[in-house]
Structures are given as structure tokens and as C-alpha cells.
Amino acid sequence: MISDLLDITRLEAHSLRLEQGNCDFIQLVQEVIESYETFAKEKRIQLKSEIPSESQRVFCDPERTIQILTNLVDNAFKFTNTGGSIQIYVKSLNHHVEVRVTDTGKGIQQEHLPYIFDRFWQAKDNAHKGTGLGLAIAKGLVVPQGGKMWVESEYGIGTTFYFTLPKADQLKSTFPSKAAS
Predict the structure, then answer these.
(1) Who has greater pLDDT, 173 or 111?
(2) Taking the CA atoms of the chain, what radius of gyration do you get in angstroms?
(3) Could you give the CA distance from residue 62 to residue 27 in angstroms, rounded to a whole number?
(4) What is the pTM of this model?
(5) pLDDT over 50 (residue 177)
């Protein structure tokens, strides 16, 4: 909780430092998936992924990108019942890599969607209490890295969170990678 409060304060003050560089995005995603495999088995939730076999180089802060993915997967587990499924997709687009984290949880009511990325916001009917900062932090970490984040949900069916990050070759001329520094 303290870490979340520090992160949101730094994000809002534009003082959170990102250590961006040319990263193998697939490796980061696989690291997150592997960290949840045992938990998925224990909770009897199918954890599936659809990831390109070839490397996807993105310009990102690897630690913060893992934080984004972890937050989305944590939320998916929080709201998915035993027997459900969570799917992580990675798709290569022209200038970005897109990630989808889809769950078969209870979904989000349409009237709540405009507030889902607000800090300290949680649905009143939410039995899973947290800080209400995770999604605000996730989006706050995606945007300064040149990406976008959004959500689609159908109440009673499930939720999909999306985010994009720019491919590393799209930013070479603007931001040198750590290796080039």
C-alpha cells in the first residue's frame, strides 16, 4: 500500500523516473505468466497465453512494465472464480505491441467504466477490497512510455484490459536505448 501511494504521488507530480530501453517484451510477458502458473493451478483457473514466437522489441522500463502486467493479471485473478479462465494475448501492430488480459470474471458495469482508472475508485459492490490505486498506476505507467490503456467489459461475462507500448525501432531516433548510452 505504501509503495502504491508513493507511485501514484510520483506519477501525479511527474517525478517518477522511468529507466526505458530496448527490451524483449515477450520475455517480460513470459516472466509474468510463469510467476502465476502455480497460483492458477491452486485456484483452478486456466491461465492461457497467445504470444508471438519471435521477439518483440519495445521501448519500455522493464520493471515498470512487469508492474503493469502483474497488476492486470492480479485483478483478473481477483475477479475470476474457480473454473474460469484468464488469457494473455500479445499482438504485433505496425508501430506498437498490444497486450490484452481477458478474464471470465464478473465483469464491470457499464456505468463504472469511465471511473475504472481513477485513483482510489472501486465499485461499491466490490467484495475484493484494495487500495483502488492499481489501475490508476498501471495507466500512469503506460502513458509516459508512449502507450495507451483501455478496458472493455460486459457485466456477468468478463473484462478485457488492453495496453500498447511502442516498438523500439519506432523511437530509435528520438530516444537512444540504454545499450547505446
Answers:
(1) 111
(2) 16
(3) 10
(4) 0.82
(5) no
